[in-house]
Amino acid sequence: MIKFIVEGATDKAFIEAILQKLDVSSKYDFLGLQGIDRVKNIISSLNPKDLQENNYFAFVDADNNFELRLQEMQELCHEKLDFHIFPNHHDDGDLETLLLSKINNNKVIDCFDKYKDCLDQDIDNKAKLYAYTTITFDKRPENTIEI
Q1: CB neighbour class for 36 (10 Å; exposed up to 12, middle 13-18, buried from 19)
Q2: Of 44, 84, 112, 139, which has the maximum CB count within 10 A?
Q3: How far apart are CA 32 and CA 28, in angstroms?
C-alpha cells in the first residue's frame, strides 16, 4: 500500500485529485493531517517493518524557509522515504501558494490583497485561499480542488 504523509485536508484533497486524474488504481492511505509536527512524528516513528510493508511519501510546506525545510526533511527522512516540499520543491511557500498561483484576475483575490494592505498585516495564503473558495464556491478549499 502507498501511504502519503501530509500536513492537512487541503494537501490530501490535492493529492487525491491528482491520483484520480491519473486513474491510479493502487491502494493508498493518508496519514498526518494535523500539521508539520504530526508529519515529523509519523516519519520518526516508522520502523523497518512499516517501510517494508508500505511505500511512504511525504508532502510538506516550505513555509517561510525552503532551505531549512529541505535540510530538516533530508535529516528526518534519511533514505527511508521520498518527500516533496510545496509549492514547487525550491521556493518558500505552501500548497496554497501553488493553488493561488493558478487563479488569475479575480475580484476576491484583488480585494483580499487590498484588505491586507489596508490592515498593514501579513495574512497567510491559507486565509486568502479560504476567503476565495468560501466567497466563490461557498466551500472550504479541500472541497473545491479539481485537476
Answers
A1: middle
A2: 112
A3: 14
Domains located in the chain, CATH noted: 2-102 (3.40.50), 104-139 (no CATH)
Instruction: Please give the Cα distance from 137 to 108 (Å, whole number).
Output: 11
How far, in Å, CA of 55 to CA of 76, rounded? 16
**Is the pLDDT assigned to residue 85 strictly greater than 90?**
yes
Distance from the first to the final alpha carbon of the chain: 23
Q: The C-alpha cell of 105 is what? A: 484576475
**Percent of the chain scoring above 70 in pLDDT:** 100
If we measure between CA atoms, which residue out of 47, 31, 51 comes closest to residue 39?
31
102-122 pLDDT per residue, tens:
998 899 999 999 999 999 998
Amino acid 25: pLDDT: 80
Question: Could you tell me the three cell numbers for 11?
Answer: 494537501
| pLDDT surpasses 90 at 26 | no
Contact 48, 24 (CB under 8 A): no
